[in-house]
Amino acid sequence: MKKSYLAWFIAATCGVHSSALLAQEANQSATPAIDESMEEVVTIGSREAIQKAVQQQRDAGGIINVVKKDDMGKLQDDSVSDALQRIPGLSVERDQGEGRFIRIRGLAPDMNSVSYNGTTLAAPEAGRRAVALDVIPADLLESIEVNKTLTPDIAAGSLGGNIELKSMTAFDRDGRFYSLTTDLGYNQQASETNPKVSGVWSNTYAVGNRENAFGIAIAGSYHDRSFTTDNVETGGNWDFDEPGLEEMEQRAYSVNRERTGLALNLDFRPTDHSDYYLRTLYSEFADTEIRQGNVIEFEDPMLPDTTGAAEVVKELKSRKETQEITAFVLGTEQRLGDWTVVLEAGSSKANEAQPLAIGGAQFKQAFDQGFGYTGVDNLQIIAPSSMHDTSGYELDEVEISDAFTEEKEKNVKLDVAYDWLQPSYQVTFKSGLKFSQREKTAREDIFIYEDFADLGVTDLSLSDYYGGDVKYGLQKFGPGVSADVVWQLLEPLDRNAFRDDVESSIASYDIEEDISAGYLMADIQGSNWQVIVGSRYEYDERLAVGNRYDDQTGEFTPNISEYSHARWLPSLVTRYDLSDRTIARFALTTGMVRPSFEQLRPSYYLENDDGDLKSEFGNPNLKPLTSNNIDLGIEHYDDNLGVMSAMLFYKDIKNFVYEADLAGRPGYEAFDEAVTYINGDDAWVYGLELNFIHQLKGHNNWLDNLLFSTNLTFTDSEATVDWLDDGVMMERDIPLPSQSDTTANFAVGYETMNLSLRLAANFKSKYLVELGDIEDNRYDLYEDDNMTVDFSAKYLFNDHVSISFAANNLTNESYYVYTGRRAYNAQYERYGRSFTLGLQITNW
């Protein structure tokens, strides 16, 4: 049992090469060597899987990280994103303190792909291809695999890597199995308790005379979490020429998030040579958010610790946003002698619904004097006490939105493999075809209510909409706005009379993509070496339909664009055993990712602003981003040390996409502003992944229960952006957005037969969030260094009952974004500490 605890600790904290030491021990004491071949390096956390790890790593060609179900459960990972943040080279982009999107080797989430049992998952958000992984509960999965080397049998759609979600099956365990877990969480800042319950059940059945021919596996999860966020931000509204701060805002968030997940998986194995299977997934993420805001707009740019005139806006935003992701895969695998044939049909659908949300209910009041600010990151407002009186504020405007986004992905694929055995080597020839259709639909209706006095409304004071004083941990906040009273005001009014036809039309579009793909590859394995070589072909056809608006004529016209693209994606992946304990790896691969839907959207807005011609539009004709990748690494295993590995990687990226102003360039000579997205010059990213594990041995006391683990990834990148300045083309170099120079994990664990303790730290250095002004790096927004510290404990009463405890964000780490330099706040948030107590009952 002690080895089992060490195994999950290693696998969960160290990623790709972390389980070799324990696998060696398991092989020496429990089973003979296992004659199985794989194309990837695998890290596994269960006892049975550990027994296979050394042989699998010998046969590996590419580089893959794996997190198993047991690891996710023991470390209190609520979502897929939480489970992935400890893997080398991966880091998390957070929303309200929770992990949402995953970056791989310094590349932004939209440059990576997510699949479920081989089917590409649809993304619920309107402008993105990146899948929000906090939508999917980790309890529904058997494992998560991150492919960093892209072999030809992996569908194109990423530069950094592919995240493959593997569902559990009844054949993962012997006979009947069930597990029930209940957790009770507590958020210190919100003083809220958060229940969670999850369970899995599986069993295999005889069919006719065949034992264990049919299997059923069911998993379910429900988590209800309430918390608050304290925020103060400027949004980058600094004037560095005046200089001074133009605007700042206090925000108080009250959030409730409900995650519901279900999975049903069926397997039928009528013979030793035939498998039939169905994989299903349903996940719902309901996010209810109330945001109270104090927006201070200074009359003139303000220096710190000075005061002057300002307009204050008391603002309410209230919405419930529900994201759903569903997927199913129906397939069969037939093994016919030396041939293996796999035929699958898959489908995924995702949507995001935000019905009738208050996008902003604003109450305004002008002050002649007394307003300023002090501090650096956690800015404090200097204000007279009258700022917190309700009587002086008058209702100015209410914005309502009704939005819905849906994405559908359907595919069918055929893979055929042939094993050719020779006395000194083996070759597996593999080929396949895949046809997929993807459709993104975005709809939004925007309604603007204003000029209330002209509508006969007499109750315009904030006093009439008072919703109580707002709880806010950074400073005094004052009165809030009641959402219920705002809705009472709007209910008798005809909503359609206030529809903003221009904004609603521009925000709506449809994009369809048809992709035909095929590949050929050979996997050649000798006694101490392996070579995977081949190429993938992908042909895209895209149809984009949106709207164009010209405010000079007041006309709406359809904006339709068609695009096609074809590309070969070759790859060469190798590994060589330098000795029984040392392995060298090398890979040359090609990646491709299509631009995001926000960048491709076929929306066009043209206006004449007092003689200045301005436009803003998407670019459906953007080329895909491609990369030529090099991976080179070495790993060494030792009984006492554990494992050391170093992996170098380099990516040469073509057609980098960024936002640009085309005014003055060919075709836009008459424009004063023409903002869109364009393909830029080449970009590159390179880095080094280091992984180290050490288990103390030989002390014959409590020190032998200690295990240390760390992984570090150092990354650098560069891209070039350009613009036209008085007829002269200018340019500057920037790091790739979302790329941290350093990511790191460190963990120390203490293990006995029944007790497991773990203290872990997760670090990522600053990274570029977005360009505030393409021409001026002083306005670039950067997320600051961030380090979180977590603690977990588990105690086994027996083989069936265990309790667990977890404490997250022990240091109450804040989230901080700055403008150009750290002294200039763009956003500061605090989330507080969270604690979880859990009980698990298992029957093997």
Can you characterise this structure?
Its main location: membrane. It comes from Pseudidiomarina indica. The chain is mainly β and 844 residues long. The protein has a single domain, classed as Beta Barrel (Maltoporin, Chain A). It contains eight helices and 42 strands. The chain is globular, with a radius of gyration of 28 Å.
Radius of gyration: 28 Å
CATH architectural category: Beta Barrel
Distance between the termini: 15 Å
- Any idea what the CATH superfamily is called? TonB-dependent receptor, beta-barrel domain
Structural class: mainly beta
How many domains comprise the coordinates? 1
Q: In terms of per-residue confidence, which ranges show pLDDT below 50 for 5 or more consecutive residues?
A: 1-56
Instruction: Tally the beta strands.
Output: 42
Assembly form of the protein: single chain
Mean pLDDT: 88
Q: What is the CATH top level name? A: Mainly Beta
Main location: membrane
Signal peptide: 1-23
Subcellular location: Cell outer membrane
Domain TonB-dependent receptor-like beta-barrel: 361-810
What are the main properties of this structure?
single chain, 844 residues, mainly beta, Maltoporin, Chain A, 22-stranded antiparallel β-barrel, five-stranded mixed β-sheet, 8 helices, 42 strands, 8% helix, 60% strand, globular, disordered N terminus
